[in-house]
Amino acid sequence: MNTPVKQAAATLRDAIREAADGLINRDHLAELMILGAVAQEHLLVIGPPGTAKSAVVRRVAQSLGGRYFEYLLGRFTEPSELFGAVNLGKLRDGLVETDVGGMLPEADIAFLDEVFLGSTAILNTLLGILNERQFRRGHTHIACPLRLCVAASNALPDDDSLAAFADRFLLHVFVEAVPDARLEDLLAGGWAVGQRAITPRADMATLDALHRAVPLVDMQPVRADLAQAVRKLRGAQIILSDRRIVKAQQLIAAAAVLAGRSVATRADLWPLVYVVTSAAGQQSARETLRELLAEARHPLLHAVVETAVQQPLARIARLAESADQLLGGARGDAFRGAAESLLREIDANFGKDNLPPELSARRAQLVVAVQGA
Q1: Claim: this prediction has a pTM higher than 0.85
Q2: To 5 degrees, how large is the angle CA 83–CA 277–CA 161?
């Protein structure tokens, strides 16, 4: 992978950290947005109200820069509220043209909350923008710069037509309220987030540089593994459409690019979990694909890989980074407690016989540091 692409990936790493700082148990959502933006595949977020869906999307968009469009849809939302009003001046001349200034057709990143409440007219127009990056209305026909659309809802729809629309979002992620064990972190993080503004750490040129590298990734080494994974999913009654199976390669290639590689490996197969469209299906996929996903890991997207596969090897990069931060930081009052907590997590995931090389030296340094604290 060439140097500019690696530099772009490093820039996105800073953008993710900026956006996710203080948002408890939402790092994986921020990272999944980055994967979707690089692959230029859209993301559907399902979760109850008040679970910081909009906050994460807004902060990631701010950190990435570019033109951002956000709207909360309702039963009576008019198409003009998303796509722009008809230009009355042109209408007098017999032309039906839409003034799209500042609206969804001009956005680089978009967030549509309660998307399934949109009317048929809205959803049909959205399909053209999502699938083809084209906006057509009357005499208006423009190419849309959209890199990523994030849609959100409290639940998946039961209606078949709406379910078909949901299927157009290749990535599905399900979020829940922060658990009791992390309520103190939630309170502290939420307070800090409210006091800190986000500054752009990347731009659309960064995303575009990475996206251009995606089709250059050699997928041949993992194609047999991917086919086997699909067979296993079918055997477990987890059915993916042919379209989703083929497009999953785009996500796997994007994961490789963000890891700084031009050849996909088994370590990059984890996005397949998020291609499964239901929460129960995703959990079943984790178990069904446990062996194939055992090597999953990523140097940049720590949280989303951990959430996808829930296996020890996926935690190595995060544990190593946490150790480096502790060892390289100040040895204040909180150091001992944080270091001991990290050591417990390392020991809970790995024994002496299978401790990865990436963690072995770091663990030894942490033990020495704790003893001297």
Answers
A1: yes
A2: 50
